[in-house]
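note to self: dont lose this again. the chain is below, predicted strucutre after it. 309 aa total, dont forget to put it in the shared folder this time
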Amino acid sequence: MAMQLPPTVSIDGRTIRRVREEKRLTQLYVAKVVGVTTDTISRWENNRYPNIKRDNALALAEALEVPVEMLLRRDEGDDTEAGATGDVRRRRIALTVFLLASLLSAVGLFFLMGRQPDRVRILAFRLLPRYAAPGSVIPVRVAIDRKLDGRGYILREHFPRGWKLIEANPPASSLDNINGTARWIVKPGEKRERIVYLLRVVADSAVNSTVKFGGEVVIKGEAGEGEARVGGKEKVEVAPFLWPDQDGNLVIDDAEILAASDVFDEMKGVHLDWNFLESVWDAGSYRWLSKKKVFRPVKRAETYHQHPE
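---
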């Protein structure tokens, strides 16, 4: 049976640090999983914040992949003196490490002077439609680099404020539809080729405006730990066109319907309306009803080269 915890619990900072270091996890990774800053993780480990909220303790246990009971403080009793001695020893070691790190940094700076900065790492690639109409639903695909196969990481996506993530595969581990942020935790051993989701465009979006996306990958592991950027498409134009209509001519032609079918194949686990797109393709054209915020298939003979309402 799961342990019943009070709203606030006391944690053992030394145990937290030991477990994290044994599992070769960075403070950055743990902070991202828990949803706090690295400074907070450091304070927890140094017992500067011995009491934390229950939800944070549970999230911390999940990040460290251990039972939460292991992280709780026990009565220390006679351990106080030993702990103080250990603290002195750790301070001496920390000072030595600091001096060595300073020396190595100076040497490294000498060799790096004049070099161009390394390119930003990209370990995921976002695919977006060119257009998104107010009130419509668009697909978003994030392809994962094979370098991440079997590794633990967090994918963090930022989408326009006001837009709503309505469905995702896999479901988002954390979702903030107010500020436009979603996060997915992929644990070590899991393999994912892509993460996909559907966004509903805010109905009062300004037509002919451009919105931006962003994202990061937070990596777990000893080598290459840190953050990498999500590359690929970053902008979508708000316009009265269906998302597969790549040239915005109010027609879904053969090439566009075939491309849309590929998108549907990759969007497994979420629900896009294929029947409607097929009806638009079969009709030959479509119109945007701006007041109702919907599209309507139109036989090409009916359009007479009309512009959207």
